[in-house]
Sequence to fold (577 residues):
Amino acid sequence: MTIPWRRLPFLVALVAATFLFVYPLVWLISASLKPRSQVFDNRLIPAVFQPQNYVRVWDAGPVMRWLVNSLTVGFMAAATVTLSSALVAFGFAYFRFRGRNLLFGIVLSTMMLPGAVTMIPVYLIWNRLGLIDTQIPLWAQNLFGSAFYIFLLRQFFLGIPRELFEAARVDGCGYLSMFRRIAFPLCKPALVIVFVFEFKASWSDLMKPLIYLQTPEYFTMPRGLKQLIDAFALSGHYEWEIAIAASVIAVVPMIVLFAFGQRYILDGVATTAQKG
Amino acid sequence: MPRSELVRRENRAGWFFVLPWVAGFLIFTAGPMIASLVLSFTDYQMIRSPRPVGFDNYRALFDDPRVLKSLSNTFVYAAMFVPLGTVAALGLALMLQRVGRASGFFRTAFYLPEMTPAVAAGAMFLLLLNGQQGLVNKVLGWFGINGPNWTTDPNWLKPSLAIVSLWTLGGTVVIYLAALNGVPRQLYEAAELDGAGPVTRLFRITVPMISGALFFTVITNTIAAMQMFDQAYTMFYGPQQKAAASEESLVYMVYLFQNAFQFFKMGFASAMAWLLFVIILGITFVQVRIGNRYVYYHGER
Fold:
């Protein structure tokens, strides 16, 4: 193999950039295994290993519960939004019904609406329903689909040849089974993208858990992590190694998800701007 | 079956499929928008029913120095993050394009930070940016630079927030790379024959050809920057906040959140939300006006 000399400067620059992007995560994992006094030293391999940090995280808060909560909320949020957005997207892609273009225009325009405008009345709705301090407000809205995903999935449904559906119609296939048997399976890559995007968004979200959850038992991982940091700040006793270990616990599931779905995820991100 | 029957069936079926969204829109978007507009003209502390106060909340917006401060903080943060992020992401994408198959590896590496929850990223950067012992200042020290107290010096709080955000610009890089790969190679060959240098090619071919993607990311990143919350709240706010130090890191959404859910000033917070909406609409409108003059769409219909 010849060395591509012309590419060498770019490769060097990119390796340097990679370092900037990846090193903080490596540092985080390394620091999570150090005693507090050595958190700030630059050694990648800890001079003194202190894996007990992870044990002490479990003492500092119900971390296992937070993890399970995050997984549950993330799954509910992702599953409901994928299914409902697909249904709606199929409606917009396949049927010519009265008011379709106006309605789709409204779908697109809601993407620009800042969450702050609806945040307070939506909170009051959940409050009225007595569902504050439950996890239902964290995902139930997803039952109704989400504009960006509807937009994305509609593009994919439009890509399915119409003849396929017409043939199914001739064979006596109803609209719902057309959706279930043809559109849904053919769109699997796009559905995976939507599921993963929403799972990631739900996993990262801090604002909704801050608004809706009060009991630590119900917290999601980011909310729990914030709680730990706040507790240290309040007591003036910064147990950074614990906060770091908790951060690692919050990050690693996402990295595992990324490792498995990276091609889907990256291609999904790449298409978002193209379809505009 | 008569044609009118078919049309009616398709109408019904179409509405059946989009019904979930229509219901959700009415319950969780349109209804709340009206409610929040109404609330913004009331004094509502949740203990009593809302009391109409006319334009008092809107007048109070401009009398409250923290509203203006948080707004200017947000603008300053956005003005640092959006241009820097765009240029840096474009630079990285251009380099990625030059390295052929290796770009897959780098693309993955650049995107990795996006998988980090903002709270974890915030906690991590509190340590990395620590003025005395943080890694960032140690590295700066190698070059003889005496790094600032990023997380405590009021002048450096917003740059700190911008740095955390810049760490997660991998998504933008991925979008730009896809756009760059869509530019026809012949354009460059033709330009080269005409004697165009690399800089001319960049500004006369590359940038115009990917202007759609640039435009899209500038708009979405601006809208997101105006609503920044998670990092700022993680790094500088919470039950422990120190009022004096936090003034410079008070971004708009943090102050709105505090008014709504810590001070329970629901009416005032609603007015804040509408002010933000109007500002975002205004910025986006200007960006679209400017963009329409310069953006080139490949498949223009």
Q: What stands out?
A: Chain A has one domain: 62-240+250-275. The radius of gyration of chain A is 23 Å. Chain A has a mean pLDDT of 92. The domain at 62-240+250-275 of chain A is CATH 1.10.3720.10 (MetI-like fold).
